Amino acid sequence: MANLKVPNLCGTSLEFNSIQTAFEKLITGALDGLEVDASALSSTTLSDFNSLELEHRGLISEIPALPSLNLQSLVTSLSSLTPGSFEHTQLLSDITTDFGTQLTAGGYDLGTLVTGALGAIQGGTDLCSAVPNFEKPADGLTAAAEKAVESKQPTVDSAEEKTSTLWENPDVVAQRTEVGVKVQKMIPEPSTDVDVVADTVTSTTPPTEDTGAFKVATKTSNITTTEGNKVEVTTPEDSITSTTTITEVSESNSIRTQTTTTSGGGETTRTRANVSEDGLTSRQVTIKEEITEEDFTFTREWPYDYEIELKHVPLTILSVLGYNDRSTRKYKWVKIIKYDSPKGVEIGGEIFQRNLDRNAGKEVAPKAFTDRWTLDGKTLVITDGRGAGYGPSDVKGDPEATSAGEGPYFKVRYRYADTYDPRFVNND
Question: Long-range pairs for 188-196 at CB < 8 Å and ≥24 separation?
Fold first, then answer.
């Protein structure tokens, strides 16, 4: 935009500035002449107005005295003449002279255009579709050039677009609603509080009765694990809630059922529970617990027992490691073996004998023993027969850790029976 206050401003229009200057002169002259004679003011104002008018006229392009030659107009005129007549021959020659070179360069053939134009006119169609919009200035010196086709102007109001009406299939709506209810019942709550959302369960507490996707087992069995640990769990046989025998084999099978083909060619379908508060032996989960000082109690006299309450009842103990903070070796995690294993029995006898000799005042040669563990339900007891004790491990990468270490004392890997089996889903 023009700005008289800033000289040599990029983008400034000199023509517009001239108009603005003339306009300001007109206004200033009128204001200055409020106290002078009206005839004198009229003369001055008329002069300023004429100057403003001249500046405005300078921005208006001159209208050409003669119209440009238009190919579409000339071809239309040619189509109204009789082929072979003097007028037709003369006009066709003029068209060829004025537009022939540019038409050829643009990939057009004049003869084809004339024939197409005649057919369009006789058929009552638009000539613009048959003949390109070429124009040649009236000076006759400038070559013809193709221009864009003129946009048509509407003659009637545009049609009103009505808002579409969405029809919802009642059957689809009903099914969607039903599925939504089922899905809602299958989603556990993020909260640990019970009954935060109706008809759902918490993410940490298994349901105690059938709800949504969950079907609760009503039977359990007392079994002895490979570790000799007696636990109350739900076995695969305990989880069966119903059994149906059919004679025809269905091609589709629900995820919530287990199907067994009988010798007679039929099928026996067993519906299973998928939730058990005591755990499902068919759904074993491996976990590693890291035991810190807050997770165990310690007896300060021989045999120096560490008593640990695990989070779950183990079915199988995979490994037990303790951190020997007094060791000078790079790897300070000591393997702890099962109490009643052959090695554990042997080491236990050696430890017992060494302590008898020590109490009797006999000199005992130093010997490193591997400590032992026992399991009773969820309670894991680690016996420190070495008497060396365990300490907190170092935590690498922890900015809050001290030089003495703030990590776990023990690491326990084991398998336990999970309370939920996602392979069987109740979606009734």
Answer: none
